[in-house]
Design goal:
Helix content: 10-25%
Distance between the termini: 25 Å
Number of domains: 1
Strand content: 15-25%
C-alpha cells in the first residue's frame, strides 16, 4: 500500500492490460509489453495495472522505487466497438500461484 498511494495520498494507476480483451485495435503502441512497461515506469506512476501473465514485468524489477502492481483478475469481451453475440465477464479463479 505504501507504493500504491503517492506522498499526495492520490494514486495514479496506468492500465496496460489491454490485450486481455481480445481487441487488436487496443494494442497499437503496446505490442512490445516489456518496452511499454519500461516506458510507463520511467514516468513514475504510483501503480501499473497488468494481467497475471504480464505481472513479472513489474515484479522482476529490483528498483525500490518501482510502482505498485495492480493485478487484473477478470476478463471480459464487452469493450469492443462491435459487441459479440455472447457477452461475458468473469473472474480468473487462480490469478496468483505460489510455488516453492
Amino acid at each position: 500500500m505504501h507504493r500504491l498511494f503517492g506522498s499526495d495520498r492520490k494514486c495514479f494507476d496506468v492500465a496496460i492490460d489491454h490485450g486481455f480483451f481480445n481487441e487488436l485495435n487496443f494494442l497499437t503502441g503496446i505490442e512490445n509489453m516489456r518496452t511499454a512497461v519500461e516506458t510507463v515506469m520511467n514516468a513514475s506512476p504510483d501503480a501499473i495495472q497488468l494481467t497475471p501473465g504480464q505481472a513479472h514485468l513489474v515484479q522482476n524489477v529490483t528498483n525500490r522505487q518501482k510502482p505498485a502492481l495492480v493485478l487484473r483478475t477478470d476478463v471480459a469481451n464487452i469493450y469492443g466497438k462491435k459487441l459479440p453475440k455472447v457477452l461475458f465477464s468473469e473472474l480468473i479463479k487462480s490469478p496468483v500461484k505460489i510455488t516453492g
